[in-house]
Every structure is written in structure tokens, then in C-alpha cells.
Amino acid sequence: RRVLLLGEGNFSFAASLCGTAGTHVVATCYESEEEVSGRGRAAESIRRLRERGAEVLFSVDCTKLKDYFLPEKREFDCIYFNFPHCGRKAGVAKNRELLAHFFRSSAEVLTEEGEVHVALCNGQGGTPADQPRREWHNSWQIVAVAAGAGFILSNVHPFKAETIHGYKCTGYRSQDKSFCVEGALNHIFTRSTLLPYFKPVSCEVELESRKVSFQVPQVLVDKINRGFLELNSNHPVRTVKEKLTAELSRAFPLQNIDYCLSLLHQGHPNGVCHSNIFWIILSPEETPSTEEMSNGPANAVLFSHVDSCRDTDKNGRVNIQERCHISKRYCLRPSLLPYAQAIIQRGAFLPGTLHVLSGPVFRKCLIAPYSMPVFHEMVFVCAVNRGTEDSCIQMLVSNIKTSIHSLHQTVSSFKLSINLREATSFETTELNDFATFESQLSKIQYFICMNIDTSGSCEKGSCVGIIRTAHYELVSSELVVVFASLNLDLLAMLICGISDWRMLWTSDTRFLRQFPRGELRLFKSFSLYPPSYVHDVSFWVPDGEPFDEVAFHTVARQVSGEMVISVQLIDSFQQSETGRKSLCYRLTFQSCDKALSSQEVAEMQLLLRKEINQRLRVTLR
User: Fold this and answer.
1) CA-to-CA dists, residue 128 to 92, 139, 153, 596, angstroms
2) What mean pLDDT comes out for the span 139-165?
3) Which CATH superfamily is domain 227-261+334-518 in?
4) By CB count within 10 A, which of 117, 251, 339, 596 is most buried?
């Protein structure tokens, strides 16, 4: 294991580390050997290092590391830089600049799985781990600076100088004097996966006994066909699904019918607002472009994706016939409920048997902590004799509770409460995005609420499922159908302590490594205190047209690759003379798993302005 130490003052830290078995130490300092040797105990530490086979280098500039090592010796497993400083009375701006150049230089000599350790005095880092915490502008902003070189903060812990044998700090204002390291922190950085750049993707499905392909909406390119629920998956969403299925199979005869579900839904799903739907349009009269043909089979029928308000009239209706001269329209399925209803209406079911459907569903939605444009839904359908539906509901909920409690107990000791609440007891403001959308589809009798705390109250975001009943004359006047729907993604988040839904979809392998063989554990984030950036955008909306806020949020999701975590309307103005209306939105950018720099966010903001001007026909201010 090759370890590189930078900016050593008297080499006492390097000497303490050199005794570790299996470690080859390369210790360096910025000054010449002659300058360093005069410092207290430096000569002795250097002698000990050399005796133990360590390399000792002098006059090494931490911002140009690759210049000091041959290509075959440039890969280090760990780089230490304790208490970096420009020297003398350099201010925070100069030291930020030093760190920025250091991180870029480190990226050139670090292994892919390597770590960069940076120790800073109390308050300098500017993270919540500092106590007390300095104001952001007065700190070194180490996490944001590191992001510029592709690093994320993966751990932070106290730098305990007293536990390091023989260590003595030195270098106060470039002198052979010690400085206060009480409350100092060691920041451990790792490489981030690269920000996504998504090319157009076509998806092939079977529709009406023929294979067809369609262009996937850009905002969903990294989420389509991820296979979280497949047999070989270790994803926590699949673990939750399998546990629920196993528990319910003890109480009900159970039949899985996932295999027959198409990603595409024909026509307009009842009760769903147009602005919430990802429309896929079949256009057999149009000739596909060369690029489209290269993305799909030659004999496939091609679809296009409609995602801008130019495809709607003033009432929000999609103007399909005028635009594409087509005979049919499809959308990515926003719910599995229509499939469950179709099974019942066809009579393709056994009364008393619990039919289970599961898979991803797709919905345009506003950007909010619990708003997911795609998640895995699990639907249970059971037809029972009239008058027994309440006992069926109680049995269903009881088994769901047992299953979730069992999963949670293996993960955390926090108190878990699961409640069945009547829909009439909810205020609209209490509903999260999942519950609000489900309310559009048909009348809901109960919400299944879950929260992990000691209060037992139902907080916004904790609605993980719904229950509804329906009467179908096509089946039997003596039968009542009970439907239950669960958001598996939200369940997995609450059970495993995952605070950001985007983490479920990360491509970083460090996520799934925390769930070996699908075993659920309390999730530990590998990207701590990610920096956030705020940008405003203001524009005039088209005259006489309602502004589609969902479309605006969808564009923000797309251009940023889901890096926008908040969109707030901060000002609205209407000219009295002309009646023109202006809106001003504040967008907050932050990544949960990747390094995100201010420059990258600035580019996203410019792209956002361009896209909303073209697709939403707004006039930028």
C-alpha cells in the first residue's frame, strides 16, 4: 500500500505512520532538506524514515505532484496533507486556491479507489462537522473546492494528535512553532463517479403482438430497465418486495402476474392530469431519422416523446392529431392500477386469491423531497364476498405491518409505527406526492402511513401505501374487489434510513455494496455535506396561456441530471398596462452522490435558460 505524505513540517507524522505493516511511505515537504533539518527533531525523524525503507523527498510542490514521480510510480493508495497553509498571514481565499490546485494534482496520482486525507484546524473546513461552525464565506469551503477536482467527502473524524506516537505539529506562520490543533478534523475524500451525460436511448417492447421501440424521455434515460426487481438483483427495493410477498403468501393464496405488464399504456389513464404523463406517440406515417433507425430494429415502429407545452392547447390537452397525424397514442404507465382493473374486468382471477403486480411507474411531478418521477409500485388485488372486505383489509394491512416490522428490526433500533388512516382524516397539505397522485386515480378509503420516531404521528412523506375498494358488475354482484398499492422505493428509504430518493438510482457501486446479497442495513452516505448552489431565473410567460409548472420542473430535472433539489417561486409580477406576467424562480442545485462544482452548475443554469425559452416559449429577463 503506497502512501504519500505532503507538507511535512518535521516529519514526525510520517515517522509514526512508517511502522505500519504493509505500508510503503513516501514523505515529502515543500522546503529544502537544509531548511527542514534545522527544525526540532526533524533530522531524527528523517533518519528513522530512511532506516525503515521510506522515501523522503524535499522541495515538493503539492500542486504539481505528477512532475515528481515516474508514470509507473504515480499511483498512491492514500495521500495525506495535514494542516495545509500558504504560509504566514495568507487569507481564506489564498488557501482555498491552494486546496483547489492540490486536489486537481492529487487526482493525477491517486488510484481509483484511493483516499485523500486533509486535516484542518477547527472551523476551517466549513462543514457542519466543525464545532463551532464558521460562516461559509469565512471558511475554506473544502467540500466545494474538492468537488471541482471530482472528489466527494466520504468521512470526517477528529484529528487526535495525542494518539499519534511522537507527533508534534509545527509551522505556525512558516516558523518552527506549534499551533492549536484542538478540535481539528481529518477530512477523507474519495473519487466521485462522473456527472452523467446521457445520449438518446431507445427502448424496445412488445405491443399488440409486434415489437416496437420508442425514444425514452431524457429525464428517464438512466432509470429505464434498471432491473431492480429481477432475480439476480441485490437492490433493497427487491428485498422489500420479496419480504412482503413471502409474508402475505402465508395468509393468502398468492399469484404473481408481473410478466404480462407493458411499459406503455394506451390512451389517457383515467383521472390523471395531462401534465403528469410522459406521452409516447406512435407515428407510423413519419419516416424515422438515421439516428432513430440506428437506435432500434429496422422493422420496429418508432415512437417519439412529447414533453413540452408546445404539444398542448390552451386547455392543456395534447394536440396529437394535428401534430403527427397518428391513430393511437401511448404513455409510459403512470400506475399499475389500470392493469389490475383490467384483470378483474376480464375475469382473469380467482376470488379469494391475492394477485400481485409490481414494477416501475413513471410520473412527471414537481421537484420535492418525496416526489419521484419513477418508482417501483406494488399492487395487491383480491376479490372477496360482499361484507367481508373490511376483514380482508385488516388482514392485508396486518401482514404488511408484520413484514415491514420484521425488515425494520434487522436494520435499526428506532421505534417504528405503521398506521391505517381513513382518507377523510387527511388534509390536502398532509399528503406527499405519492398519495396526492393516487388520489387522482380513484377514490381512496385508507392511507398506510409509516414513520420512524417516538411520536407515532404521521408526517408528510410517510404515506407509503393506499387501499381502495370497488364494485365490478362484470364480475359478480356478490363480490367486492380490494386494491392496495405500496411505494416500494419509499418503503426502502424509510427502513434503511436513505434520506434522498435519488440515491436509490445511483450508479456508484458503493451504494449496493452496503446491501450484500440483498441484506438490508442502515445506509451510511458516502458523500457527506455536499455543497449546494443557488441560481435564480425570471421570465415573462406567454400571453393568455397558463404556465405549466410541472413542465418547468421537468425541464429542470432533465438539464441538471436530477441535480436540482428545490424550485421555489420567489416573485410574481404583472404589468398593469399590458397584463404581462413575470415569474421568478429560485433553484437549488445539489448532488447526493457525485461531485458537483460551481462551474458545472453555472453551465446547467445556462442550459436551463435556453431550454425553457425554446420549449416553454417564455421570454427570459
Assistant:
1) 18, 12, 12, 18
2) 93
3) Bira Bifunctional Protein; Domain 2 (3.30.930.10)
4) 596
Q: Tens digits of per-residue pLDDT, 530-557?
A: 999 999 999 999 988 889 999 999 999 9
Whether domain 2-191 has CATH 1.10.10.10: the reply is: no
CATH number for 533-620: choose from 3.40.190.10, 2.60.40.10, 3.30.470.20, 3.30.70.380.
3.30.70.380
In the 3-class helix/strand/coil scheme, how is 194-220 assigned residue by residue?
CCCCCCCCEEEEEECCEEEEEECCHHH
Beta strands in 263-347 (DSSP E): 264-266, 279-282, 301-306, 329-332
Query: Residue 332 in contact with residue 207, Cβ under 8 Å?
Result: no
Chain region(s) in the chain for CATH 3.40.50.150: 2-191
How close are the terminal C-alpha atoms of the chain, in Å?
Answer: 56
pLDDT number for residue 242: 93
- Assign 3-state DSSP to the chain and report helix, strand, coil percentages, each to 5: 30, 25, 45
Identity of residue 180: C
Cα 272 from Cα 289, distance rounded (Å): 32
Residues 414-448: b if buried by 16+ CB within 10 A, e if exposed = eebbbbbeebeebeeebbbbbbebbbebeebbbbb
Looking from the CA of 437 toward its CB, the CA atoms found within 13 Å total 30
Residues 430-449 have a mean pLDDT of 66
Helix (H, G, I), strand (E, B) or coil at 385: strand
Sheet architecture: strand order including 446-452: 254-256, 354-362, 374-385, 479-487, 463-470, 446-452, 416-422
Q: Phi, psi (5° rounding) for residue 9?
A: -85, -55
C-alpha cell recorded at residue 314: 390552451
pLDDT at 301 (0 to 100): 43
Residue with cell 414537481: 366
Distances (CA, A) of 594 to 36, 128, 510: 39, 19, 12
State the DSSP code for 462.
-
Contact 434, 463 (CB under 8 A): yes
